Amino acid sequence: MPSIDKKTIEHLAELARIKVRPEEEQRLLKDLENILKHFEELRELDIKNTGSVVNTTLAKNVFRDDGSYQNLDCVSTVQAFPDDENGFLKVPPVFE
Amino acid sequence: MLLQDLSLKKLKNALLNKEFSALELTKDYLKEIEERDKKLGSYLSLHKATAIEQAEKVDIAVAGGNDIPFLAGAPFAIKDNILIEGTRVTAASKILENYEASYDATVIKKLKEASAIFLGKTNLDEFAMGSSTENSAFQLTRNPQDPERVPGGSSGGSVAAVAANLALAGLGSDTGGSIRQPAAFCGVVGLRPTYGAVSRFGLIAMASSLDQIGPITKTVEDAAILFKEISGRDVFDATSVNSPGRGYGDELLNPKLENIQKLKIGLPKEYFELGLEKSVETAVNSAIDSLKSLKLEFREISLPHTKYALSCYYIIVPAEVSSNLARFDGIRYSRLTNLKFSNLKEIYLNQRGLGFGGESQRRILLGTFVLSAGYYDAYYRQAQKVRSLIRQDFENALREVDVILTPVTPTTAFKIGERIKDPLSMYMSDIFTIPSSIAGLPAVSIPVKNRGGQLPIGFQLIGNYFREADILGIGQFYENNT
After folding, report:
1. What is the pLDDT of residues B334-390, one digit of tens each?
2. B443 phi, psi to nearest 5 deg
3. Contact A12 B343 (CB under 8 A)
């Protein structure tokens, strides 16, 4: 089983953009360790030649006509934005 | 008619015969909710004004001598991860606390066309992750049969509402058992449709290759009626399909005993070896005996990869969750307003850190882990292969039998607080519902009858792809003849 430690949690939290509170870190680490331990039984299965499930639906090649459609009513979509200006979602600057 | 005696089936005639009006019915339910839901905690928000408006429209149609749809005037409880335009939808999470839906889910559109009534939105585990509804960021929901116990999850709110007669029917969502398990814990019927049978458009996505919206009802007959209304291909959901063959026609709503008796039922030995509470074993056996007396044939079958299903599921689901929940950045849909950061990354870290609850964070991080470089092959790829082995198990078995019968849960409803501190023990309550989800097969939880005052227990019927008619057909005969 891969060893995971505080640094792993910090790395994952950074990737997932979630600030984990320091008091939560220990608990999270323990929970993840227990869950990963449980997964070991899966890793032991010798299934190198098994195919993966690629498609979970009967649908194949779902296409629509190449045209432009108005799906969402812009007014209500914009109304749902927490902060908007001239019909655009207002976001903080990406570049500093 | 008393609310507890009412069903979707009886409703239309009752309205047309003027036994009561749609408005009276809706007001009765709203009154019951006001009197009893404070203790139960099933509703997160009520839609009183629109419910009354919808009911009045039904009464005008009845008064005009017009025919009305089957679900006209039926008061529904809708799980709060299904969008109803112009109303709050939270997924029971702080990160969506102030979000208002800008469109209707397809299932909601269909119910509106059928003149159904929406009483309100019900409680769930945050983002549908959990088996007890204790992961809701807002409130606790209690089991109507015993307030010290959980209703199950994640559709605990809508199940509790139907079980307590605070709605005539409900909609929930089921990824690994989130309709079936609470239905078993509370003594109502819960159907998880074939993957692709019901559109997911307007369902807040959790695990896109597994999620399905499904009916929660008091009877199997009602589940068939409701399923027929909400199923069907939707251009807005590319994974939805129409049922191949004859579609959901007469055999769904009017099953015939002589056809049902031709169905062979498989009992997978692995499910009965997995550590059942004695009361569950006894109850499920009584259901089997009852079906045997209806001359249904049983066979022992094997689903050899059953024990790997839990691990397989808890790798694939967090992986999909980490992807689906990436959109909740505290910028687009709703914001925690007491936070002020000027730097974009800080906004993400803090909005998500404070907006997501423990289980959501746990699954996002676990998903991030199994998808990350160096671990992807060992975990995620491996789980996808195991997934195809589990599907093959079912496909092989369904060549020998038509339907598979199993318990729904290993225990009856556990006590509030009992499992919330140990995620693995919580995950274990889904061991019987997860495998059929992985395979994408339809499955229904049916309450075992004649339990007296004891805690409810359900038995599960798993059908072949798009054979809801088989499992609901057997269910209806069980219901009417036990």
Report:
1. 888 777 777 888 999 999 999 999 999 999 999 999 999 888 888 899 999 999 999
2. -150, 140
3. no
The pTM assigned to this predicted structure is: 0.96
Distance CA B273, CA B199 (A): 36
Distance from CA of B238 to the nearest CA of A (A): 6
Sort A89 into a burial class: Cβ within 10 Å, 0-12 / 13-18 / 19+: middle
ipTM for the complex shown = 0.89
Place of tokens 């609470």: B182
Q: Tell me the chain A residues in contact with residue B342 when contact means C-beta distances shorter than 8 Å.
A: 92
What tokens does B42 get?
């099933």
Residue with tokens 């808890």: B314
Of B211, B214, B134, B201, nearest to B169 by C-alpha is B214
For residue range B158-175, what is the model confidence (pLDDT) as tens digits?
Answer: 999 999 999 999 999 999
Which helix (DSSP H) or strand (DSSP E) does residue B151 occupy? none
Q: Is B79 a catalytic residue?
A: yes
Of B428, B184, B173, the C-alpha closest to B287 is: B184
Q: How many CB atoms lie within 10 A of CB B425?
A: 13
Asked if residue B151 lies in contact with residue B141, where contact means CB atoms within 8 angstroms, the answer is yes
On whether any CB of chain A is under 8 Å from the CB of B331, the answer is yes
In whole angstroms, give the CA distance from residue B477 to residue B482.
8
The residue among B437, B436, B478 whose CA lies nearest residue B458 is B478
